[in-house]
């Protein structure tokens, strides 16, 4: 009874904060805060923070509802039936799956976590985690529109994402051999023992319950990541980036770091990347477009919250090294 009351209180506080957030955004003029002599940089932090959160929330909602539908309707037996038993044979179908669902990196973490909890092999989840935010049709359309004058970037982004997602999944399979890397709460461990399917009309109720619970759980990590990203966007000296943008080695590294701290939604990052077209090389732009959706600041915080630290650190190193080496190889091939 005490636990139930505590859950109700936390949900009420979370809902109240969301209502307050929406009210402040819609009805309060940020410029009115100037009477408190708030520095312009901090007002800019506020603006960027709001833009990241508002951009991400619809996709977080999409992600948690898809996650809740998986929890309610997808059984462990179904996953075991349709995922190839051979770990290497399962890699390509996982990458192809990412090309079907319109899910960006803002929403992918809860979906992958739920799929792994349902029995999806870890390395297959990793392929989906890094591939789906780029390969999905909405991202392809936005990239195509943003780079109408340079179709090479469009197709190179999709091709690299497909190939690299498989390579990253393979490397992590060789490292972890699909050992459990999820952080389980006491409630979830208890739920492992009670895996009876939800029957009848309770499925709809269960879906909304899981979605709301996961939304409030993930929301705090989104807010933390968005705030840190907004600080980097405001106080990072971009003139330094432009000075080294033409360097074939430093350029991709800088743009990967830029993509990491900006934490842009993969369905909108192409428009930001296109603005750097006259400053950075094609390889650097591709590094930004491939690395950012696979790994950014807000996703890192979510990953550390739901996966074991050793796995997250290894995942970050593998993604960074694989993407950087791939960009260097791509640049060399284009000059041949």
UniProtKB/TrEMBL annotation:
It is found in: Cell membrane. The chain crosses the membrane at residues 12-30, 42-70, 90-112, 124-147, 153-176, 218-236, 242-263, 270-291, 303-330. The keyword Isomerase does not apply. It is a multi-pass membrane protein. Its main location: membrane. One of its GO terms (cellular component) is plasma membrane. The keyword Cell membrane applies. It holds the Pfam family ArsP_1. Keywords: Cell membrane, Membrane, Transmembrane, Transmembrane helix. Belongs to the UPF0718 family. This is Permease. It comes from Litchfieldia salsa.
């Amino acid at each position: 009874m005490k636990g139930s009351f505590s859950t109700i209180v936390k949900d009420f506080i979370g809902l109240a904060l969301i209502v307050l957030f929406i009210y402040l955004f819609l009805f309060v003029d940020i410029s009115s805060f100037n009477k408190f002599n708030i520095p312009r940089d901090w007002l800019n932090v506020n603006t960027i923070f709001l833009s990241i959160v508002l951009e991400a929330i619809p996709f977080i909602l999409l992600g948690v509802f898809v996650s809740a539908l998986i929890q309610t309707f997808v059984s462990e037996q179904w996953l075991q039936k349709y995922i190839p038993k051979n770990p290497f044979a399962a890699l390509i179908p996982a990458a192809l799956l990412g090309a079907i669902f319109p899910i960006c990196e803002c929403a992918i973490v809860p979906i992958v976590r739920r799929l792994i909890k349902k029995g999806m092999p870890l390395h297959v989840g990793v392929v989906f985690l890094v591939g789906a935010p780029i390969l999905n049709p909405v991202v392809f359309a936005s990239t195509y529109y943003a780079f109408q004058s340079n179709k090479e970037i469009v197709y190179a982004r999709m091709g690299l994402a497909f190939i690299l997602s498989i390579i990253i999944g393979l490397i992590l399979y060789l490292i972890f051999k699909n050992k459990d890397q999820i952080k389980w709460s006491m409630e979830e461990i208890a739920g492992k023992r009670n895996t009876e399917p939800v029957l009848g009309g309770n499925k709809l109720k269960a879906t909304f319950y899981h979605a709301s619970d996961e939304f409030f759980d993930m929301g705090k990590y989104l807010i933390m990541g968005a705030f840190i990203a907004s600080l980097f966007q405001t106080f990072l000296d971009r003139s330094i980036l432009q000075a080294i943008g033409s360097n074939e080695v430093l350029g991709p590294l800088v743009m990967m770091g830029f993509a990491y701290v900006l934490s842009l939604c993969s369905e909108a990052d192409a428009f930001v990347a296109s603005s750097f077209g006259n400053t950075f090389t094609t390889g650097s732009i591709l590094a930004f477009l491939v690395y950012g959706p696979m790994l950014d600041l807000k996703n890192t915080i979510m990953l550390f919250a739901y996966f074991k630290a050793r796995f997250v650190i290894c995942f970050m190193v593998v993604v960074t090294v694989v993407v950087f080496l791939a960009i260097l190889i791509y640049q060399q091939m284009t000059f041949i």
